[in-house]
Amino acid sequence: MLDEVFTIEQLQSLFIDIKDTDSEYFHQAGIGREQVHQLNQFVRRDRICWLDMSHPPTRFYLQWAEQLRRHLNRVLFLGLFDYESHYAHYPAGAFYKKHLDVFKGNSNRRLSSILYLNPAWQPGDGGELVLYAPDDGRILETVSPAFGSMVIFLSEEFPHEVLPTRCSRYSLTGWYRVNATTAVNLDPPA
């Protein structure tokens, strides 16, 4: 868990942007990728809006993510290839059941990151992230989605879930990926 990674002004600009982003850019989040992608309200009920450098309000964040990628590769030799991210909005009652941040048959996501954008979050509002031990499923940590806090964890190792929300919960969620291209599979896709 990281606190005070970004200034209050930066966090407020992201919060304003996620709230002001037209709802037509958000879509119901699904599970799976490409041919196996599906919407499943039993598993997750959040709405997402994919981000890239063409979206000016998030450029400083994506530049920071790129600096972190380079640093992690230099220090830990992780071979991180790129970073993909989206805004996530969990309206009241939304959740995401226990899962791993990896697509079946692919192992390209290495690190998951979540930056919380909830300036008015209060205990009891729900939407906590619960991280589980990979071996025995015991709860390792319950993370409150407090404004400006950030969590980074190994995508393929730690099962996790988002508990049901009682009010809107916002975050900027992303994944550092490795290039898992093979002779027959382009991953990440072009």
Explain what the structure shows.
It is a single chain. This protein is of the alpha+beta class. The chain has helices at 8-20, 59-76, and strands spanning 27-28, 47-51, 80-90, 96-99, 109-116, 129-132, 139-143, 150-154, 160-162, 169-178. Helix content is 16%, strand content 30%. The strands form two sheets. It has a six-stranded antiparallel β-sheet with strand order 1-2-3-10-5-8, covered by helices on one side. A four-stranded antiparallel β-sheet has the order 4-9-6-7, with no helix packed on it. β6 (129-132) and β7 form a beta hairpin. The chain is globular and about 40 Å long.
DSSP strand tally = 10
Secondary-structure element order, N to C: HEEHEEEEEEEE
> How much of the polypeptide forms β-strand, as a percent range?
25-35%
What is the rounded Rg?
16 Å
Strand order of the largest sheet: 1-2-3-10-5-8
The main pleated sheet reads as: 6 strands, antiparallel
Summed over residues and divided by their number, the pLDDT gives a mean of: 89
CATH topology: Jelly Rolls
The domain count comes to 1
